[in-house]
Amino acid sequence: MRELKCGTCGTRVLVEKYSPTHTSVQWQGDAQSSCPEFARRAALGEPSSAIPTCHALRDSIERAVYDGVLETDSPRSYPVAGRLG
Ligand SMILES: [Zn+2]
């Protein structure tokens, strides 16, 4: 897992990326008190377990992946030219 900071609210979370589509986010401490978006959604009745991450944090995660800071843990497999036959 890698520690990542939400670019908007500054909440620190642990992120693990299994694949381009599967990201696991582990909140440290009380997400409702640290992230404004989280708090707002929780106040509307959404159970915190149903809120994987706030939008700003998701953007931060995507940016980290793009920048190569956060790498997928499973090795990517690219087809290698000349070895497919
Ligand atoms: Zn946030």
Describe it:
With 85 residues, the chain is of the alpha+beta class. It has one domain (2-67). The chain is built from three helices and three strands, in the order E-E-E-H-H-H. The chain has helices spanning 31-34, 36-43, 55-67; strands at 2-5, 12-19, 22-27. Strands 1-2-3 form a three-stranded antiparallel beta sheet. It is elongated. The mean pLDDT is 79.
Summarize the helices and strands and which ones pair or pack.
Layout: E1 2-5, E2 12-19, E3 22-27, H1 31-34, H2 36-43, H3 55-67
Antiparallel strand pairs: 1-2, 2-3
The structure holds zinc ion (ZN).
Zinc ion binds at residues 6, 8-9, 11, 35, 37, 54, 56-57.
Radius of gyration: 16 Å
User: Beta-strand percentage?
Assistant: 15-25%
Separation of the first and last Cα atoms? 38 Å
Approximately how much helix is present in the residues? Answer: 25-40%
Morphology: elongated
Q: What strand order characterises the main sheet?
A: 1-2-3
- Whole-number mean pLDDT: 79
Order of helices and strands: EEEHHH
Quaternary state reads: single chain
